[in-house]
């Protein structure tokens, strides 16, 4: 069924020369997939995908600049005016192996056959160069109703590619849609197949969910689906099987915002207040009360880069020391508490302390607690003020260095030098000693005499 589409994006306008070149050579060409879905929904477009009846070698012959991105699947990257467009030949797929990859890919001449192989109806629409929408599977209706429905039989789509089950959760959570009952039932029946999917692919989908518009909705849907407990490698139970109190089938809930507008505690809309994906991941771990070891294991199993793993682990470690200071207004101003905060900041670093403050402030503003810990906005503001006023937070910021200390005290470089620098740093950070060379060298002399 074709519709006249009233929407058109500037990005598509810029890509029209690609379609026109293919059409003038006698080959059908259309915009397809996510860009069509998003332009109809009024969302910004990140990538433009084009499908065509032209074979890959023909596509490469029609354009001056191309890259053979994935010829076995019919994909050629076309470069026009320094913009890149993936142009893929219409194809059909059959005989999937390991519930993930097709073993038989055949190039075809019909657009409808190409759309049939796609996962969900909202992703199986195409736009011609004249603005006509090609929608053989009812994607426009599902888009308007806020529904994630599979193309054809959901059972077949999930058994072809088990990652589609996780993608269903991602689209539903990001767009605030419901998963159609037929898709939800098929997901529950086939969730054991997730063990065939590589962990890095699951990690990439989860990262998009956490960074999307509804990370709290994703948490609720994942908890209800039980998908993560079926992953190829076991994930910590506190992460894979959290007790989110979410038992009602999301497919039967309101179409917009499955999981509720605020999600289900402990993973609520507070997550969406955070701008950084790394902050959101750390917030998930804090809300679920995961240990630093479980947080680290979770991200390692999902194949995250070491830098991001270390960042999350550091925030979770800091939480154990800093959490008591955030519980009651005025507590952070007590001298012992102020010293404890300084020690925590020096041990974790300013970047980690700042991330922890962003996370706990977001949860304090939204829920008043995180992971069962009551949060005081007043206490957090005091801790933030103390952090901002700390005159020195790293050894490299001191007015003296190891060489100067050794020369002044007549000592050889070694562990004692590092220990002295840390003591000087703490004194400066607490405001007990000014960060000046004379004052620091004098304090170093006293510390050495007291040994």
TrEMBL record:
GO terms for molecular function: metal ion binding; nucleotide binding; nucleotidyltransferase activity; tRNA binding. Keywords: Magnesium, Metal-binding, Nucleotide-binding, Nucleotidyltransferase, RNA-binding, Transferase, tRNA processing. Its cofactor is Mg(2+). InterPro entries: Bact_CCA-adding_enz_type3_sf, CCA-adding_enz_C, NT_sf, PolA_pol_head_dom, PolyA_RNA-bd. Transmembrane segments: none annotated. Residues 31-149 form the Poly A polymerase head domain. Residues 176-229 form the tRNA nucleotidyltransferase/poly(A) polymerase RNA and SrmB- binding domain. It comes from the Bacteria. It holds the Pfam family PolyA_pol_RNAbd. Residues 379-443 form the CCA-adding enzyme C-terminal domain. CDD domains: NT_ClassII-CCAase. GO terms for biological process: tRNA processing. PANTHER family: CCA TRNA NUCLEOTIDYLTRANSFERASE 1, MITOCHONDRIAL (PTHR46173:SF1). Belongs to the tRNA nucleotidyltransferase/poly(A) polymerase family. This is Polynucleotide adenylyltransferase region. It comes from Paenibacillus curdlanolyticus YK9.
